[in-house]
Structure formats: C-alpha cells, structure tokens
Amino acid sequence: MFADDIFLFASADKKSTKAIKTVLETFCSESSQSISLAKSKVFFSPNTDPCLKNWITSTLGIGETNNLGRATLIKSTTCSIPAYYMQTMALPRSICNNLDKIIRNFLWGSSENFRKLHRINWNIITKPVDLGGLGIKKASANNSAFFDKTQLPFHP
Questions:
Q1: I need a labelling partner for 108 at 20 to 30 A (CA). Which of 78, 115, 146, 154 fits?
Q2: Any bridge partners for residue 64, and if so which?
Q3: What is the mean pLDDT of residues 20-36?
Q4: In Å, how far are 1, 29, 53, 102, 117 from 74, measured between CA atoms?
Q5: Mean pLDDT throughout 136-146?
Q6: What is the rounded radius of gyration, in angstroms, for the C-alpha atoms of the chain?
C-alpha cells in the first residue's frame, strides 16, 4: 500500500453511497488531485442485493471486486496499526514475533482452535513482490526501519 491508498467502510445503502461520493468529490476539488476510478474497487458482502450493487457501482463509477485478498488486508491493517508505536520505540522481539505469528495465522486461515499448514516459508512471504514474495514486512524489520528513520542526529 502507498500513503495515498485508503479503505472506506460503509453500509451498502444509498445514503452511504451518496456520502462517499460527496467526500470523494470534495477531496478532489479541494486538493486538486484526482482519484483513479479504474484502480478503485468496491467489495460487497455476499448478502448484498445485486440491484443495489449495480446502483452503487454505477453511482460511484467504481467497479466491483470479489477478491479483496488476505495479503492486501494484512498490509493495510495489521502491518500499519502498530506503525505509530514502531516509530517511537523499539518493540521487544517477543512482541514482534507475536505480531508475525498473528499475521501468518491470518494469512493461512489458522485460528486458536484450528491450525492450518503454512505452505510457504515466512522468509519467502516477506520478500518484496518483485523478488517472489508478497511484500509483507516482518515486524522486527519494520520496527527497525521506522525507529531508525525517526532518530535524528544529536548536535549539541
């Protein structure tokens, strides 16, 4: 994900759709930036009425997707939520290992009661996409990068 990527969550109804459309139009006019509708997608829960889906996608001018993807969810939530703390302190290795374990279990669909086989080594998963990985960052590496970036040199 990039700094300008965003997830919006709303009810699948006309009022919410109109509110999202207004917010996006206001953002574009105030910031002089544009939203790439071709790259944008709407994800609906399985029980959303097909007629309502059509109305929402045509009103927003955004296509529908049926595959949100676990890797995308991981990068947008579990990797970004601890970012604030990682920028201000070095997290203990046990916390970083626990974060990685949560992410691995979610990626493979494991839970506390049911463990699924992790089919690909974590070191491969955490490689950049162009090197054959999913681009998910290890928590300890992410913490080091954030923490090192925010440490300004001290000049007395």
A1: 146
A2: 42
A3: 91
A4: 10, 31, 26, 10, 18
A5: 85
A6: 19
Q: In sequence order, which ranges of the chain are alpha helices (DSSP H)?
A: 14-31, 50-60, 70-73, 83-88, 93-108, 122-125, 139-150
**Cα(141)–Cα(102) distance, rounded to whole angstroms?**
16
Residue 51's domain spans which residues? 14-65
Which pLDDT score is estimated for 156? 43
Cα 121 to its chain centre, rounded Å, is 22
d(CA 146, CA 78): 15
Let me know whether 133 and 83 are in one domain. yes
- Per the structure, the count of domains in the chain is 2
**What pLDDT, in 10s, does the model give residues 35-72?**
888 888 888 888 899 999 999 999 999 988 876 677 87
Which token pair is 33?
């930036």
Residues 18 and 87 in one domain: no
Q: Is the pTM of this model over 0.90?
A: no
User: Which pLDDT score is estimated for 134?
Assistant: 84
Round to whole Å and give the CA distance between 80 and 137.
10
| pLDDT computed for residue 118 by the predictor | 78
